[in-house]
Design goal:
The structure is a single chain. The chain is α/β, with parallel strands linked by helices. The protein folds into two domains: 121 residues, 3-Layer(aba) Sandwich (Rossmann fold), CATH 3.40.50.720; 112 residues, 2-Layer Sandwich (Dihydrodipicolinate Reductase, domain 2), CATH 3.30.360. Helix content is 32%, strand content 24%. β3, α3 and β4 form a beta-alpha-beta unit. The longest helix has 13 residues. The radius of gyration is 18 Å and the shape is globular. The two termini are 18 Å apart.
Length: 265
């Protein structure tokens, strides 16, 4: 599975048709040359058909499995795809930090785990810097309070973000700790850590900010080859925890598997 197939389109299965999965499915059905949506896995078939009338019986054979599920369901889907030697594209990237054994398992099974850029810019620059020496990586995330409500870290500490009038820093620690405390919010930090110096050395701040309407991420990297800072402001999707850029980024990553021209590392 190291390159594009030559005997037909790559068959894509999507696990979960939430805000991101549904949008990815619609784009694939509308037509992406070299890719074919052949299966979906959902808990509520009728709800899925209302959002996507083309949904019918799942087709079991697929080349790529795109994971768009709640974190609690991540491992089951990941194991199923990896043990079959598929390409596994996780969107719940934070769960890779809690299931690091899947990377070695993918090597043993001949599978591949491909993490799309998602709501983050600059992963190419970070990966290039990682070929040398990266001294430090820090990400500061600012989200509208509604996008952070219900996070385990806030619940466990009795932190309320409703009715805020001023920005409130709710987390300051490593990307690994942030992934555990905010599993639905910091997939970007997990992807950044995997591209660079790992989840324990990547520093993360999370702010609940009533003054922003977009999920904002600022990344600062100091390496032996470059020093750079990047900021992106993502418009939230129907799910306030997820930016609208995640679905098109996923489609772009899928397209790169079959395109004659791929730009970027």
């Amino acid at each position: 599975m190291s390159g594009p197939r030559t005997n037909g389109p790559l068959r894509v299965g999507i696990a979960g048709l939430g805000a991101v999965g549904l949008e990815v499915a619609k784009r694939l059905i509308a037509g992406v040359p070299g890719l074919e949506l052949t299966a979906v896995a959902v808990r509520d078939a009728e709800k899925a058909r209302r959002g996507l009338p083309q949904v019918g019986e799942s087709i079991p054979v697929r080349d790529i499995v795109v994971e768009c599920l709640p974190p609690a369901l991540f491992r089951e889907v990941a194991l199923s795809a990896i043990d079959k030697g598929r390409i596994f594209m996780p969107l719940s990237v934070a769960q890779l930090l809690e299931n690091g054994d899947l990377i070695e398992r993918a090597r043993q099974k001949g599978a591949r785990i491909l993490v799309p850029t998602g709501a983050l810019i600059g992963l190419d620059a970070v990966r290039a810097a990682a070929e040398g020496t990266i001294h430090s990586v820090k990400m500061v995330t600012r989200k509208p309070p509604v996008g952070l409500e219900g996070a385990p870290f806030l619940r466990e500490r009795g932190i309320s973000v409703s009715g805020l009038k001023e920005p409130l820093k709710v987390f300051d620690g490593s990307a690994r700790e942030g992934a555990r405390g905010f599993p639905a919010n910091v997939n970007v930090a997990a992807a950044l850590s995997l591209a660079g110096i790992g989840p324990d050395r990547t520093q993360l701040e999370i702010w609940a900010d009533p003054n922003v309407t977009r999920n904002t991420h600022t990344i600062s990297v100091d390496a032996d080859t470059a020093r750079f800072t990047m900021t992106i402001e993502n418009i939230p999707s129907e799910n306030p925890r997820t930016g609208k850029s995640v679905a098109p980024s996923t489609v772009a990553a899928l397209r790169a598997l079959v395109s004659e021209l791929k730009v970027g590392t």
